[in-house]
Every structure is written in structure tokens, then in C-alpha cells.
Design goal:
Layout (H helix, E strand, L loop, with lengths): L1 H16 L34 E3 L12 E9 L6 E8 L2 E3 L4 E5 L3 E8 L19 E2 L7 E5 L5 E5 L11 E3 L12 E2 L7 E7 L7 E6 L6 H6 L4 E6 L10 E8 L14 H13 L22 E3 L2 E3 L13 E3 L2 E2 L2 E6 L4 E7 L6 E7 L4 E2 L1 E6 L2 E2 L12 E3 L2 E3 L4 E6 L6 E6 L2 E2 L6 E2 L2 E9 L2
Parallel strand pairs: 1-5, 2-6, 5-14, 15-21, 20-32
Antiparallel strand pairs: 2-3, 3-4, 6-12, 7-11, 8-9, 10-13, 13-14, 15-18, 16-17, 18-19, 21-28, 22-23, 22-27, 22-29, 24-25, 24-26, 24-28, 29-32, 30-31
């Protein structure tokens, strides 16, 4: 078990390290300049929210459907490559992933154009000229066999794929899988584009959801460097004005910055671990009583060079990575009108990291987080009245792709800070340190 977990963390660390070069451009502003397809690297210290796109107001395509064309582009090459969505609304070009607002029962089209490896004319042709996309087979993965618990064989398959393919997945979508087939490949057509015709079910919960690429083997690297966004299912009667909603997407800072400069390097573990696993050979399983099995072996403490891992401390293989909020280095500032209910849609848009959130007042005392929705589901269970009730908590764990709808009303002169807190995933897992993320202040009208 330890061997499998170590391989996973080591592989993830290697993937992150492969993007450690300095990118030429980044997320942020409209992408009118072709030399900056993904915009500048970091925005102002104030939170800049992504553009809203109401799908029922989109232009109608040749098939009579409201359609949004999302073109996937990349900044840089190799170690400095970074991904973003490009689209145009009313003649204005953007490279910030839009917030897609939909209503239950809505029917619309999403066209995904793949320009990772070069330009395509698919964004400009009629929708009925887009060929049908097809699934693409995965490249064969090398299977490594290791000896695990009671000599049972463990199969480990690591599939590093050059991220050149893409598609789209509406994370949390409850409609038919055929409408957003995650196995479709943009590379299966000459235009490198797929047309997705989506119907939001009448039973879809109202709340906050994610969209991201799901091309197997490529999606992790693409999401890792920012290729994801938010889609929101609107209630029939919105309880708050649009100005009272705030979308906050946490993504890895790029170029990547480790949040603990004192974290041990993996170099001393990598070679000895791989050499040890390579020396093991599968053997017949050890006879045992399934009703009284022997205890699971624990390999701690582990020592290599001057680095030691033990089961008593929160000292995993590596610490995590700094995050940005909507493409701006944290902490960001957010001003909310005093005395008016506000809805914060906080999204963990990272590819692999969990985040433990807390909120404190100006004196550092913990404040309750009023959670009205989690992962797209109102805690009230009532999609007609999604803000009717809340759960108060002082700790909120958001795993990768998780979303939290937080309701708050600021008192005059009040200040609050939402932060990520120290935690670890286990003695051999990633851990995270305290970081202020969002500094909130009440303002007068």
C-alpha cells in the first residue's frame, strides 16, 4: 500500500516539477493579442471575478441552438506550457474561463475547439459543418508489478500523455452521458473540434458546478495549469441579485511555488524506492484466515539520506502549492456592502489538492461559515429556496473540484479573512500550511 501511494505522490510531484519553468504568459485579461493567448500572469490585489455568460442569451447557431464556442489554447511549450479557454462575446475576446449560467430545462450547445498544437478554423464554421466527434483509444500504459500485502500482486499503471487532446466535462451534470460524452476526442475530426448539445435536466439541483477537460491522460496536466471553469444552475426565482454573488476559483499559482521552503526534497527517496520495488518479484499469496488476517504492515519510520518520515508527525513527502484566487496572487481583497446578504461561491479548481478553509475576524477569532450549498446541492434540499437554511461550521474541507456556497452578511466596519489551514493527508501524504486567501471588508453603500 505504501509503495502504491509513494508512486502516486512521486508521479504527481514529477508532473508538477515538469511545469516548473517560467511561462511566457498567463491568465487574466482579454486575449486580443495573439502573443498572449492566456493573458498576463497575475491580476490586481482586488478579486476580479470571471465574466458571466447566460447561455439563453448566446447567439443562435445554424442548428437553432444557443451556442458558446470555447477554444482551448496553450501558452509556451514543454515545461512552460499553460492552458486557457478563449472565446468571444459581442466582438470582445476573452481568455478567462467564463461562468456559464444555465436554467433547468435549458438546451444549448458547447463547441470545444482544440488549438493546443496549432490554429483551427472550427471556431468560424457553421455548427452543422462540425463533423461528429468519436472516442479515441488510449495509448498503451506500461504495467508495473509489485509485491504487496501477503504477497498479493499490485498492478501500477502510470500513463503520462503529452497534453494535446481535450474535450469538456460538466462536473456534476445529471443528464444523459451521451450529451457530454467524456470519451470524445477533438483530435478525431479534421477540424479538431467537438459539438456538445446539452439539456439541463428539470431535476438538476441548483448550485455551483465545475467544467473541465476530461481527455484521459491529458486532463490532469491541463487542469493543473488552469483549464477549468464554473457553471451555475440558476433557481427559478433567484433569491439574491446577481451583484450579490461572487465566484472565487482557487487554482495553483503559476509558475508553481511550494508553500513550505523547508519541505524535504524527494530526490533521496526516489532512486532507493524505485530500486527496492524493482528488486521485488511476485510470489504465491501467503495462506491466511480471511476471518483473522494478520495486521497490515507499517513501513514507518522511513529514512533516506538526511530525510526521515515517521508516523507521528505531519511530515508527508511534500508540502502543497500556493494557490491564486481568480488568477490573482492570494491574499486578495473583496469588499462587500454592509447589511446585505452576499453569496460566495468558493471553488477548489486545483487538479489534486484538498484545502481546509476557516474564517476569522479582525482579531483572529474563528467565525462560523454559513454553508448553504455543497458540491452543487443546497443543504436545505430545496432547489426552489436554496438559501432557506444553512449549516454553521468552523472548518470546511474542499477537495479538488469541490464547491461551497457560503452566505454572509457583513456588519458596519466588520472585517473577515478566509484562509487555508494546516492539515496533512497522512504520514506519507501531502500537507498544507496556513495561508490567508480572501480578505473581506464591509463597505457603505
Amino acid at each position: 500500500m505504501l509503495q502504491s501511494r509513494f508512486c502516486f505522490w512521486l508521479g504527481l510531484a514529477a508532473l508538477i516539477a515538469s511545469f516548473s519553468g517560467t511561462p511566457t504568459t498567463g491568465l487574466g485579461a482579454p486575449a486580443a493579442r495573439r502573443s498572449l493567448p492566456c493573458g498576463p500572469l497575475a491580476g490586481p490585489p482586488e478579486l476580479v471575478e470571471p465574466p458571466d455568460v447566460e447561455v439563453w442569451k448566446l447567439p443562435v447557431n445554424a442548428n437553432g441552438e444557443h451556442e458558446l464556442v470555447l477554444t482551448v489554447r496553450a501558452d509556451g511549450k514543454g515545461d512552460s506550457q499553460r492552458f486557457c479557454y478563449h472565446y468571444a462575446i459581442a466582438g470582445v475576446d476573452y481568455s478567462i474561463a467564463p461562468v456559464l449560467r444555465v436554467r433547468r430545462g435549458e438546451h444549448f450547445a458547447l463547441r470545444v475547439v482544440n488549438e493546443i498544437s496549432g490554429p483551427s478554423k472550427a471556431a468560424w464554421v457553421a455548427s452543422n459543418a462540425i463533423p461528429q466527434c468519436m472516442p479515441m483509444p488510449m495509448p498503451p500504459a506500461v504495467t508495473n508489478h509489485y509485491v504487496g500485502y501477503l504477497n498479493h500482486t499490485i498492478d501500477d499503471r502510470w500513463m503520462p500523455v503529452v497534453p494535446v487532446d481535450t474535450n469538456i466535462h460538466l462536473h456534476g451534470y445529471e443528464g444523459p452521458a451521451s450529451e457530454e460524452n467524456i470519451f470524445l476526442s477533438t483530435l478525431s475530426t479534421p477540424l479538431h473540434a467537438c459539438e456538445f448539445n446539452i439539456t439541463i435536466p428539470a431535476t438538476q439541483p441548483v448550485g455551483t458546478f465545475m467544467y473541465h477537460p476530461h481527455a484521459h491522460g491529458s486532463s490532469d496536466a491541463e487542469v493543473l495549469t488552469g483549464l477549468d471553469g464554473v457553471w451555475i444552475v440558476e433557481p427559478d426565482r433567484p433569491p439574491l441579485p446577481r451583484s450579490a454573488e461572487h465566484v472565487i476559483i482557487l487554482r495553483y499559482r503559476f509558475p508553481f511555488v511550494n508553500d513550505n521552503p523547508y519541505a524535504p526534497a524527494l530526490d533521496s527517496f526516489g532512486s532507493p524506492t524505485m530500486a527496492h520495488m524493482a528488486s521485488l518479484r511476485p510470489a504465491p499469496p501467503v495462506p491466511y484466515d480471511p476471518f483473522d488476517p494478520p495486521p497490515w504492515p507499517v513501513a514507518f519510520p522511513i529514512r533516506a539520506g538526511n530525510v526521515s518520515l515517521d508516523p507521528t508527525g505531519c511530515n508527508g513527502l511534500s508540502s502543497d502549492i500556493y494557490v491564486d484566487a481568480n488568477g490573482t496572487h492570494t491574499p486578495v481583497s473583496l469588499q462587500l456592502p454592509q447589511g446585505e446578504p452576499q453569496l460566495l461561491r468558493v471553488v477548489n479548481g486545483t487538479s489534486d489538492s484538498a484545502t481546509l478553509l476557516q474564517m476569522r475576524d479582525a482579531s483572529g477569532h474563528l467565525l462560523p461559515i454559513h454553508l448553504v450549498g455543497l458540491d452543487g446541492i443546497p443543504v436545505s434540499g430545496d432547489s426552489a429556496h436554496p438559501l432557506a437554511s444553512y449549516v454553521a461550521t468552523t472548518k470546511l474541507m474542499l477537495t479538488s473540484m469541490s464547491r461551497a456556497d457560503i452566505l454572509m452578511t457583513m456588519n458596519p466596519g466588520e472585517k473577515a479573512t478566509i484562509s487555508s489551514e494546516h492539515y496533512c493527508q497522512g504520514a506519507d501524504g501531502f500537507y498544507q500550511l496556513h495561508h490567508d486567501l480572501i480578505k473581506i471588508a464591509a463597505t457603505t453603500a
